[in-house]
Write a structure and sequence with these properties.
alpha+beta, 10-stranded antiparallel barrel, 10 helices, 30% helix
Length: 349
C-alpha cells in the first residue's frame, strides 16, 4: 500500500482513509494477497464511504491462516478472524481439494474508518464456475459457508429471495460473488450477478424482486452506461430483495484509460449527471500505471505494483439518492530486471 499512496491524490482518498488502509495492508501483507482494491466515492467527498478489498486465492490461504486477530477487535471480529483462519487452514490442507474445486477466491472488504481494524470485515466467496439458474444447491452451499465464516445467519426469508433471484437468471448469466456485509446493520446477503447484457440488467433486477424505480434506473444506465461492455448487478437479500441496487460498469478487456478512451467518456457522463466532480474524475483517469514496490528487507529486487481501474459502481437507494464509486485495482507482480520506469503522476510525497 505504501507504494501506491504516491499516486493516490487526496480527492480520491482522504488522509484518514490512507492511515486506515495502511493499517489493514500491514495486517493483510503481501503474502496474503497479491491483488487488492480500493473503493472511493466520486461525489467529491474524500471522507465518504471508502474501502480496502483484498483477494485471497488458495495459493495464499496458508498466509491467511497466520493472520492474527487485530488488537482491540470486537467480539464479532474475533469470531470472524478465528473462522477465517480455520477456513484457510482447511483450504490449504490435504482436504482442501474439494474447496479448491468449488471456490476460486475469497474477498475481504474493510470499511475505512477509525475503527477499521477492530470491526469484522465483510466476506465474499467467488465460485470457480459461474452459478446459473440450474446451480441452486451450489449457491446455497456458498451461503452456508459464508454464515460459518462470519457468524452471521442470513434473514429467514433470504433463502426465498435467493431462489427467486436464481430462477430469474437468463441463459448465460450467473452468480460470480456472494457475500455477507458485516459493515452494514443488519448484515444483508449480497448477491453479485454477471453475464447480463447491459440492456437486461435493470429488467433482471426487477424480475428478481428489486422494488425500486425501474424507469429511473434504466434512464440512468442509458445515459451513463451507454459506452460500457459489461453491467453487473448487486442485490441485497433479506426477507425480500432490498431497495438498494448496485450497477457495476466496466469495459472488456480491462485496460487503463490511456489505452481505453471510453473511460474518459464514462467520466464525462458522470460529471454531467452530477455523480462525479471534475477534479475527482481527472484524478481517477490519471491513477493507472506501474511502479516498483518498496524494497524488501531481504535485499532482493522489489515487486512491481500494477495500478488499474476495475469498474465504476452506480448505487440507487430507497430514498431516491444516487451515488457513484470507483474501484481501483492493484496487482503485485513478480520482480523483473531491469526495473520498469514508474508511470503515472506522483501526486503526494
Amino acid at each position: 500500500m505504501a507504494g501506491v499512496l504516491p499516486y493516490l491524490p487526496e480527492v480520491l482518498f482522504s488522509r484518514s482513509a490512507r492511515r486506515s488502509a495502511l493499517r489493514v495492508a500491514r495486517l493483510m501483507d503481501g503474502a496474503t494477497s497479491r491483488f487488492f482494491g480500493l473503493e472511493c466515492a466520486l461525489g467529491g467527498d474524500p471522507a465518504g464511504r471508502l474501502g480496502f478489498l483484498a483477494c485471497v486465492a488458495r495459493t495464499e490461504s496458508a498466509a491467511l491462516a497466520r493472520v492474527p486477530t487485530p488488537a482491540g477487535a470486537d467480539p464479532g471480529a474475533v469470531r470472524t478472524w478465528a473462522a477465517l483462519r480455520r477456513f484457510a487452514g482447511e483450504w490449504d490442507g490435504p482436504t482442501g481439494r474439494s474447496l479448491a474445486a468449488e471456490l476460486v477466491n475469497l474477498w475481504l472488504e474493510f470499511d475505512l474508518h477509525a475503527a477499521t481494524a477492530t470491526r469484522p470485515p465483510s466476506v465474499f466467496l467467488g465460485p470457480r464456475e459461474l452459478l446459473g439458474a440450474d446451480r441452486g444447491p451450489a449457491v446455497e452451499l456458498l451461503v452456508t459457508r459464508l454464515a460459518g465464516l462470519t457468524g452471521t445467519v442470513p434473514a429467514p426469508g433470504a433463502h426465498r429471495s435467493l431462489a427467486r433471484c436464481l430462477a430469474r437468471l437468463p441463459p448465460g448469466a450467473g452468480v460470480f460473488q456472494a457475500g455477507l456485509m458485516r459493515s452494514r446493520t443488519p448484515s444483508p446477503l449480497r448477491l453479485c450477478v454477471t453475464g447480463l447484457r447491459p440492456g437486461h440488467a435493470v429488467p433482471y433486477a426487477v424480475a428478481a424482486g428489486w422494488p425500486g424505480d425501474a424507469g429511473r434506473a434504466a434512464g440512468l444506465l442509458a445515459r451513463v452506461g451507454s459506452q460500457v461492455d459489461r453491467v453487473d448487478v448487486a442485490l441485497d437479500l433479506a426477507d425480500r430483495v432490498g431497495p438498494t441496487l448496485g450497477l457495476e460498469l466496466s469495459f472488456v478487456p480491462k485496460r487503463r484509460p490511456a489505452r481505453e478512451p471510453r473511460w474518459a467518456l464514462l467520466v464525462d457522463e458522470l460529471v454531467r449527471t452530477g455523480l462525479c466532480e471534475r477534479p475527482v474524475g481527472d484524478a481517477l483517469l490519471a491513477y493507472a500505471g506501474h511502479a516498483p514496490a518498496p524494497a524488501p528487507s531481504s535485499g532482493g529486487p522489489p515487486a512491481v505494483l500494477l495500478r488499474g481501474l476495475n469498474h465504476v459502481k452506480l448505487t440507487l437507494r430507497a430514498d431516491g439518492t444516487l451515488s457513484a464509486k470507483a474501484y481501483l485495482s492493484v496487482r503485485v507482480l513478480p520482480p523483473v530486471l531491469p526495473l520498469p520506469r514508474p508511470t503515472g503522476p506522483v501526486v503526494t510525497r
